[in-house]
Write a structure and sequence with these properties.
heterodimer; B: 462 residues; two-stranded antiparallel sheet; 14 helices
Amino acid sequence: MEYFGDPAIWLPWTFAALMGLSILIYVVLDGFDLGVGLLMPLADDAQKDRLVASIGPFWDANETWLVLAVGLLLVAFPPAHGIILTALYLPVFVMLIGLILRGVSFEMRAKAPMAQKRLWNNAFFAGSFMASFSQGFMLGMYIMGLTWTLPNVAFAVLTAIFLTVGYGFIGAAWLIWKTEGQLQIRAIAWAKVGIWGLVLGILAISIATPFVSTRIFDKWFSWPSMLYLSPLPIVSVLLVAYLWWQLARLHLIGDRQSWTPFAVATALFSLAYGGLAYSFYPYVVPEKVTIYEGASAPESLFIILIGTLFVLPAIVGYTALSYYIFRGKATALRYD
Amino acid sequence: MDTLLLSRIQFGANISFHILFPTITIALGWMLLFFKLRFSVTGDQKWMDAYMFWVKVFALSFAMGVVSGITMSFQFGTNWPGFMETVGNVAGPLLAYEIMTAFFLEAVFLGIMLFGASRVKSWVHTLATFLVAFGTTMSTFWIIVLNSWMHTPQGYELVDGVVFATNWWEIVFNPSMPYRFVHMMLASGLTVAFLIAGISALRMLWGDRGEDVKTALRVGIFAGATLIPLQILAGDFHGLNTLEYQPAKVAAMEGNWETGPNVPLVLFAIPDETARENRFEIAIPNGASLILTHKADGIVPGLNDFVTEDGEILHPRVAPVFFSFRIMVGTGMAMLLLSWAGLVLLRKYGAGGMPKLPLYVFCAMSFSGWIATLAGWYTTEIGRQPWLVQGVLTTKDAVSDVPAGMVLGTLIGYLVVYGVLVIAYIGVVTYLARKASVGVHDTARSYPRSGEANVTALHAGE
């Protein structure tokens, strides 16, 4: 344990990195699931089935990354888990109810009597909306330091709207990749609207974050770190420009590049997330508890880490296998 | 009501709703693997028909289990921050291993098991089915380890009020873990046995005489009749283990107030905690002593031993534990009677000629496993009070300081959603049965048995 220096330093850091990675993977993967759910009311009945089919084999595993993320917060930084989740008691409740509705409607809409299908379609949308909106709200509250004041709540509502639209965008990008024909063309149109949510959301967070604390402001706008960080906004702007251009011509150039919007959307989410992570490091509860103060005993973290080193590659491996098996355009979901 | 009681009710409601579905999926996963393997070996269509019906129930139950399980990982933080702050060093790694070795495995391979049959070779699909069943069992193992450690903690030391792990072997194989794990696995097996028997009976009452239905009824009855004696035995062993480590719980289960020999087995009573005695008691002399110590004059602990000099009560509330325990045992006895009677009737009439009355009884018992499982968990969990982790952390020290109104408001929200979903779940399972029985029963449909996957579905184009 001593080989890499003080385990009370590198173990919390490693676990913060693992947790951060889980959250990012969750945001991208369940982001497209939730986004597809958000787009449900815009699709006609036959397309609704195809929308659900495009995420059918994946959504359950995607959601598990949230369990891993909150699990890592729980096991690696127990005091932070308590502080953050009690501060976010209500939005967490809304998210959980949303996730319950989304997951259950997924099965129910296919198995309940036809007369109820509309009801479960609506529940599927409502669940996706509640989960997206509350996640965006929690993001805003977290950035603002988890205190319930009117300006903070107003900002959180703003991030909630943008993240919801942003999820809609990555959902549309997923559909561009996984569907064809009329539905694909509609998905391109949805993506053209949704991209605004992503752009405005990233802008709002980028503007607000440095002003929440002087510590973060200094981190961003001091020389030479400003230089090192400059690729982040520059690459983001280039990616958005590319997306714009690509979405405008995608219906003309055939299907070969249909994967690009989703890939670029993933890159954009990752960049924005990387910026946030950089801003808040080393705090796990903003400006209150650092990852070093809030960490579990090194012995306990170490025993988890050993398992993680063996299990995580396996998880990544069989997840990739699943995406490979269900590659190509989404077909109707059948058990046989 | 205060935040503590409301938080307990809220967590109790969530975990009760949650356990309904894993109780089905743990054993149903293995049952599906059994159907699949029987089909591979015999090539008999009925096994695949049974698989195709029950895999739908599995998918639905699995989704319900996943979404209700997520709720709990958050509620540790929102409602019980003191739990992880005190015992996080032990609970953390156990939960992490559950997520990493079980949740991902079952979630990823579930996709392949449900929708991949036409995309992968038959043996890959069978393997996926196995991995899902294995994943649910791993999940059971880790969560039972943690739960058992909360009842019988060992392998740790307390430093400044915080638990630190000293011996992981002792933590994982803590004294009550093997008993609880076996007890829960058998409970799941019984729940599925009676669910399969009950739904098959329902389909037969609707006039379905399909081979798959008759076979499923037979499998359900056989499984129930085999597992119930094992469960009674396992429950007895578990009770003896509890007597050793948590005597206060056993005293509440037995409704015994004074420690002493020749304690009767109380069949029915209304425990009165203010008078500290039982009212309307019906009892078998020496029964409790015989069951717990195997001697008529064996000493059985009494509740009055767990009251301190200054009147502080260190035993659980008696009535809920006492009645839950009797509901569990009563349901178990009903299962024993019905499944063995079912065996006799199977010999006499065969599955196809089963008379209507027993079919109705099987129907009524479809969800009896839920009742027994919930009652059993209430016995053991309420029986641990006032402790959250026996002897280490009390429940009231772990609760969050969220305002009671907020807990009550969200509790009502959860209860409404859970109530609607349980009704919808039972409704859909019955609807699936009705559709399979009364709807088009296309027995001419064929499934690939081995070798090349069925590729036609790939280009279904639709």
